[in-house]
Design a protein that fits this description.
Elements (H helix, E strand, L loop, with lengths): L2 H23 L8 H16 L2 H13 L7 H16 L4 E13 L3 E7 L3 E2 L2 E3 L10 E8 L2 H5 L10 E4 L13 H17 L4 E5 L26 E4 L1 H12 L5 E6 L2 E15 L4 E11 L9 H19 L7 E8 L7 H9 L7 E6 L7 E7 L2 H14 L5 E2 L12 H4 L5 E6 L4 H4 L12 H19 L8
Parallel strand pairs: 5-6, 6-7, 7-8, 11-12, 11-13, 14-15
Antiparallel strand pairs: 1-10, 2-3, 2-9, 4-8, 5-9, 10-12, 14-16
Helix pairs in contact: 1-2, 2-13, 3-8, 8-13, 10-13
This protein binds zinc ion (ZN) (2 copies).
């Protein structure tokens, strides 16, 4: 039996079980009416058969392509988002602009000179500085970020530092990313302090391909890096480690044109389905529309755009709007520091109390397996019930005290907006994340449709409920 056949069958079975279930608990003030449950189930059935989510990702990644934050391409993507919202019939479509500093990658060349010559597949990390001239230097090996942190001030003058670490292990939850990410985020703080000419970092990812993973660095106090910082692929980092262990002396030539190019404008695209009874109350879903520039940002985060826009669109085709407003936000400039997320939370600071709940899809397009939440007690019961309704499509209830609805949600969550999250299987995510391999062919349309089904049902049920979710 195929995946989708199994889903349809299990949905049919669950519809049968709803009728007996509702008779039992009618006296206990069930969170949802029979009609609401049936509507949610119908939404899931429709979503599983719909190609809309995939079509949206295909359009974004093909017609716009890569969408570096603050670039002309990101601007075209924002216009694309506005057009899409109008075409799909959202009640209100707007764009909220903000200003941001623009970092451009430029050309990079990295060559291993000794013990033998080989071109390395490297990528600059976001925020890295340009090399004034070609750097030719020996490489000092550090086993991990802790070893680099222990380097004495000034001890790396005239050298290039290489910080190793471990290849990320593939996992459903993406566990290990936060820790591994330290070498990418703050490795340069230590390399600069020790006087290095440049820093090379083992990619933060699980890929065994000869692709480097890019990503943003963290400021050092108020300052960005003053040296070039580049990532190399896992296989090249393995090679560096073996050569180091053999006692070979490593040296490289490196030139990089990465630099900050002043202030530009970016923005968030906002698509609203206005609620029929409580239009001021907002159920917010979103994804980020910018991407790194080495792939086409299909998995990160074109998928999230496709999933959330398609889910809201399917809800918009119901005979009646849900009670509350459903808002889809396409966040700009996420990759370079959640700038769209911060801009949204600031612009809507006076109205965040009207945001019932917020969540973002930003972990690829593999099947959703778990629903977690961070809402008040009464609303937890409601989320428990939603998880039951989602169970036919393979979703289980996870923690009820898990804050954080996704990266762009953090700034509003910090100001008290309740969150839920539909967790995707992230097993392949860090193979593709921030690499040239992040392209449309990596998305399985059936799995993406399951995501749309989960979002459509969940968001419909919350938007058509009266339950307050604030802690
Ligand atoms: Zn992302
Ligand atoms: Zn990303």
């Amino acid at each position: 039996m195929s995946f989708s056949h199994r889903l349809v069958l299990s949905i049919a079975l669950s519809v049968l079980s709803f009728s007996s279930l509702s008779q039992q608990s009618a006296a206990q003030q069930a969170p949802f009416t029979q009609e609401q449950k049936e509507t949610a189930t119908q939404l899931m059935e429709t979503a599983l058969k719909s190609e809309l989510g995939f079509d949206i990702v295909e359009s974004l990644t093909t017609e716009i392509g890569p969408r570096l934050a603050g670039s002309e391409a990101e601007k075209r993507a924002l216009e694309w988002g506005v057009e899409l919202g109008k075409e799909l019939g959202f009640d209100k479509v707007s764009i909220e602009e903000f200003t941001m500093p623009f970092w451009d990658r430029g050309h990079l060349h990295l060559l291993m000179n000794t013990p033998y010559k080989q071109e390395l597949h490297a990528t600059a990390l976001g925020g890295a500085a340009t090399s004034e001239k070609e750097i030719e230097a020996s490489v000092v090996y550090f086993r991990d970020i802790h070893a680099l942190a222990a380097a004495k001030d000034g001890s790396l003058k005239g050298k290039v530092a290489f910080v190793d670490g471990d290849k990320m292990v593939k996992s459903q939850t993406g566990a290990g990313y936060g820790q591994a990410n330290q070498r990418r985020r703050i490795g340069y703080h230590h390399a600069e302090r020790a006087g290095a000419e440049a820093l090379i970092v083992r990619s933060v990812g699980s890929s065994s391909h000869r692709f480097a993973h890019t990503g943003m660095m963290s400021k050092n106090g108020d300052n960005w890096a003053t040296i070039p910082v580049v990532a190399i692929s896992n296989p090249d980092a393995d090679q560096f480690r073996r050569l180091h262990n053999l006692g070979e002396s490593l040296s490289v030539s490196l030139s990089s044109e990465s630099k900050w190019k002043g202030d530009v404008s970016s923005g968030n695209v906002i698509l609203d389905l206005i609620g029929s009874e409580k239009p001021e109350e907002i159920v917010l879903i979103g994804a980020h529309i910018d991407s790194w520039d080495n792939g086409t940002g299909a998995v990160d985060d074109g998928a999230g755009i496709g999933i959330t826009v398609a889910a809201a669109t399917l809800i918009s085709r119901l005979p009646k709007r849900p009670k509350r407003t459903i808002r889809v936000v396409m966040f700009g400039a996420e990759e370079v520091g959640l700038l769209g997320g911060f801009a949204y939370a600031e612009k809507h600071a006076d109205n965040l109390h009207n945001h019932v709940v917020a969540t973002e899809s930003d972990f690829g397009a593999q099947t959703i397996w778990q629903l977690v939440s961070n809402v008040n007690e009464e609303a937890t019961v409601l989320i428990d019930e939603i998880a039951k309704i989602l169970s036919p499509i393979g979703i289980v209830r996870g923690g009820s005290d898990v804050p954080g609805g996704g990266p762009d949600i953090i700034p509003m969550q910090q100001k008290g907006v309740p969150t839920i999250r539909l967790n995707q299987n992230g097993r392949d995510y860090f193979d593709l994340h921030h690499t040239p391999d992040d392209t449309l062919d990596k998305i399985n349309p059936d799995e993406l449709a399951q995501n749309v089904a989960a979002y459509a049902a969940t968001i419909y049920l919350i938007a058509d409920s009266d339950v307050n979710m604030k802690q």
